[in-house]
Amino acid sequence: MLLIPCPHCGPRIQEEFAYERSADSVVRLDDAPAVAMTALFSRANLRGEEAEIWVHAQGCGQWLRLTRDRMSHAIRSVEPL
Amino acid sequence: MGAGRYSALSLLRGALGGHRHWGRAWRAGEPRGPYDVIVIGGGGHGLATAYYLAKEHGIRRVAVIEKGWIGGGNTGRNTTIVRSNYRQPQLQRLLEYSLKLWHGLSDELNYNVMFSPRGALFLGHSDADMARLAERGDALIAMGIDADLIDRDAVARLVPLFDMRRDARWPIEGGLIQRRGGTARHDAVAWGFARAADNLGVDIIENCEVTGFLRDGNRVTGVRTTRGDIAAGRTGICVAGNSGHVAGLAGLKLPIESHTLQAWVTEPVKPMIDTVVMSQTLHCYFSQSDKGGIVGGGDPDFFPSYAQRGAPIRLEDSIAQAISLVPALSRLRMVRSWAGVTDMSFDGSPIIGETPLDGLYLNGGWCYGGFKATPGSGRLYAHLLATGQSHPIAAPFDLARFAQGRTIDEAGAGPMPQNR
Hints:
heterodimer; A: 81 residues; mainly beta; four-stranded antiparallel sheet; 1 helix; B: 420 residues; alpha/beta; eight-stranded mixed sheet; 10 helices
């Protein structure tokens, strides 16, 4: 179970948060089709550290950028988005 | 090659000799390339692929390369359910092709995979559920796949331990059962395919991790491994759970994210549930193993991970659901829980096809439903690796479907693996 240090609320259990997507996979309204397609359907899916977008859904409701190791589950940083 | 063909006679002979004559079921393979085909991943799918390459296509210079040991990955971590009662026609064809192979698999492999067609039951908890199950049943029957819509009395007779009270937490209104579905011994599936492939000359190389690919321009010509470089005509990735990682070694990004899925098993008890029970409304599924333990699982952990361990909260969810359906389960002790890494694809369906690199093929993205597909997946992937062409049943599952808007989205959830 992750303990995620929300920059607004302090350390809270993982259950309050929802994972959204990899930080490099955000789809923007004015993206060219090929760029949007890549963001929608391709992932580095690293066996290691990746930046991710989460939302503190059951807490302050704020969007967050987590840098997290997908093998060890260690959280390196959590920043407001 | 072990003790030759397994039979009642060989068992009897073994009994007279104190069972000391049983040899290895497959050789400890050494890399001795070049190979016609290298299959990366010694799980059920990879071993089945190698077996059918040798058996159906006569390709004997085949190696299966496994980073750990045979049956140590997802093949030994699933909840062993076999069925073909999907809703999308492409998935129905794929899983029905596989289910037909399950029904003769022990004979085919000369290895008892303990396939037990005890029925796979979907529960309906409301009128809306029953309407949905009836629609699915009709679609299955139209496809020539068996499906019986049964009422609550029939469900109660099938599993007398269900909480059938009208005011139960999850009232049971009826169900849809596929009687040809069931379970199999997952380790035996890996071992049986390994032994049968080895008998046909396939090298099964364990403790050999792929660390990169040999390249000649846009062509993949083999693999770099912890036991040296090995050349191959065609290379097939078959490592569901780690597809993203292995494809990344070739510079590819896939429509796949790796997530954790957990399972649990109770202490063994006498027969109490003789069918596979599933609720897609709750997302919980369980069955009783031949040893007597109740094996079950539920949702994945909803965020990417390669860790092979999960959060207790997800276990609690699926166990609470199982207990609400069969209250007697609350009296059992849970003896073990574990996790596997699932290849969550972006439409919930597997990917079997070529990659943008010549000579490199992909079989992955099985989400949390790969075990049931083991023989079919292997046979279809063997067809692709032998001929370079996708079999018609596998063709809709190519990698290009995402860019071309041909996704096969059983759940209708869109490109969000955590919502599946």
